[in-house]
Amino acid sequence: MPESATKMEQEKELLSWSAPARPFKKRSKEFYITLIAMAAVVSLILFLVEGWMPVILIISLIFLFYIMNTVEPETIEYKVTNKGIRVAGRTTTWDLMKRFWFSRRFDSDMLIIETVYLPGRMELVLDQSKKDELKKTLSKYLVEEEAPPSFLDRSANWFAKRLPGNG
Fold first, then answer.
1. What's the domain count of the chain?
2. Beta 84-87 vs 90-93: how paired, if at all?
3. pTM of the predicted model as reported, rounded to 2 decimal places
């Protein structure tokens, strides 16, 4: 092997923490009653216009939402390395990421990283004690800049404000 061949850089862990896989909030009975009532009205309208398929889709989404809000997430390990970010053993390299910012959802601090692949974002639950160190480490590789909310973000926020317990 020629001496001019470049040596691959060894992956080094820069920072790690353990946290839930996603933000989680227990919901009240009133919340589910309101959600089902809204879904029933929309399903009835869509049934009259389009038939059964949109109704089946809405029922599936309500079921998924119910499961995601009743089953507590597992705790996983997050690692920042010189090669990228590893979440539960899967690495996303720095060249696939654009920018990062911090947010809050329910009672969880979140690190949001914009990516070049779908769905366009990685959302990681953050250990509050690591926030300053994480910000310093990520700034070496990415720009800290919050992306403006998309149409989907604005729509989801509008809908969430109308459900009980979301204010």
1. 2
2. antiparallel
3. 0.73
- The burial class, CB within 10 Å (0-12 / 13-18 / 19+), for 8 is exposed
Q: What is the pLDDT of residues 65-114, one digit of tens each?
A: 889 888 999 999 999 999 999 998 899 999 999 999 998 888 888 999 99
108-164 pLDDT, tens digit per residue, is: 889 999 999 888 889 999 988 888 899 999 999 999 988 887 787 788 778 777 776
- Nearest partner of 163 among 23, 24, 30, judged by Cα: 30
- Enclosing domain of residue 114: 13-21+75-149
CA distance linking residue 74 with residue 18, whole number of Å: 10
Inside any domain, residue 137: yes
Query: In 3D, which of 115, 74, 87, 75 has the Cα closest to residue 16?
Result: 87
